[in-house]
Amino acid sequence: MKRKELGRYGWRNVLERKDFHCCWEKNGQQGEAALIHIIKAAKTGVGQFRGEPVVIYQDDYHWLQIAMADCHWWLTVMVDGSGEITQYYFDITLENQLLASRDSWFTDIYLDVVMMPDGRLDLLDADELDEALQDGEITAEQHQMAHLWAQELMEELPQQLPKLKVFCEELFEQLEEEEASLQEAKAAVEQEQNNLEILIDNKNKEITAYETDIATQEQAIKEYEAYIKEQDQMIASLEKALREMEGSKRTYDGGMFKWPAPSYTRISDSFGWRHHPILNRQQFHNGVDMAAPGGSPILAAYDGTVVAAGYSSTMGNYIYLNHGSGLVTIYMHASALYVSVGQDVSKGDKIAAVGTTGRSTGNHLHFGVRLNGSYVDPMGYFN
Predict the structure, then answer these.
(1) Among residues 47, 108, 222, 247, which is most buried (max CB within 10 A)?
(2) Do the beta carbons of residue 73 and residue 149 sit within 8 Å?
(3) CATH of 2-191, one of 2.40.380, 2.60.40, 1.20.1270, 3.30.300
(4) pLDDT the model gives residue 77
(5) What is the CATH architecture assignment of 245-381?
(6) How far apart, in Å, do the first and last CA atoms of the chain sit?
(7) pLDDT under 50 in the chain at which residues?
(8) What pLDDT score was predicted for residue 278?
């Protein structure tokens, strides 16, 4: 005897197929069914009916397998590409095991009953049943029962053919509709899954970008802090030099400063605490940034002595003027310097040209004022 599965999985002669399995309930009866769409067959399958060849499968054929637990047959309805039933094939079974899944199976006891759409009947494989008895695969009782079940079926089928045809056609249509609904639901789930994967991917990209932005900001903060540290070290060195200069006895008389960038167009950054646009945090700005055309003049804000005139990676070309009484002015990012260390200058003298050297993002003058070693607001020294 052969154990066969609902749906004929592992069918070697079918290269491409689609399957749908479900439980059914109709007209007070219930069972299981498998709808097999044969998309591509390795060859045309040919069976026999009363000695004549009959096509049982080929490309675009459908097999509808129907099973019930309380009977001794397993029906395969063969449907051609136009939707017409070509054959009803009943495997006579010793046992049907319906498990509400693709694991459902039956025990084939060799004997088969075939009915054509016009009601003609044929009994197949009686010789195989006899051989099974001779080989001891089945008992005499099983041999007798197989013939009895086949005979009863062949007696009932002619009268039941119209109802059977309607039943199979309706079940076929029902399964196709359920399969289409399932495929539609599956497509919706797959689309939702795809949308979710896209959302997750976008969120991951946002997180990566956010983490990169944080890393960039942290790096910028480190660079800015290093810039401030270098600048403070430079200023400390200049103030030390100032204390050591003989001319450091100069006295500031309290006069108002002259605007050091007469060609300025705007104040691009003021003195004091403000939200840094790049670092995205509160940062102290120790001077006033005056946006002006590159090469335009930078003037001495007041009478003083050049303590330093040079270049640093942060301040660019810079000048440090001592005005006495602990008051100094600092001019940064110049494109050119016109004075040298130790030189005395007067208020309004041209000492440099506007530029964007050092740590700078555009042409401007960074003008700072320090009093007794601390930065103060330069705007307090102008009228």
Answers:
(1) 108
(2) yes
(3) 2.40.380
(4) 95
(5) Distorted Sandwich (2.70)
(6) 113
(7) 246-247
(8) 56
373, two tokens: 């070693």
Q: CA-to-CA distance for 194 and 196, rounded, in angstroms?
A: 5
Q: Where are the domains of the chain?
A: 2-191, 245-381
pLDDT at residue 21, rounded to an integer: 86
The two structure tokens encoding residue 323: 């005005």
Residue type, 341: V
The contacts of residue 306 (CB under 8 Å, 6+ apart) are: 319, 320, 321, 339, 340, 341, 342, 343, 344, 345, 351
Q: Return the SS3 of 374.
A: strand
Our measurement of the distance from residue 236's CA atom to the centroid of its chain's CA atoms, rounded to an integer in Å, reads 53
Residue-wise pLDDT tens digits, 153-180: 999 999 999 999 999 999 899 889 988 8
Tokens standing for residue 80: 């051609």
Contact (Cβ atoms closer than 8 angstroms) between residue 260 and residue 300: yes
Output the pLDDT for position 314. 86
Query: What integer pLDDT is reported at residue 277 of this predicted model?
Result: 57
Conformational region of residue 325, where left means phi above 0, alpha means psi within -120 to 50, and beta covers everything else = left
Q: Rounded to 10 degrees, what is the CA torsion of 241, 244, 249, 255?
A: 10
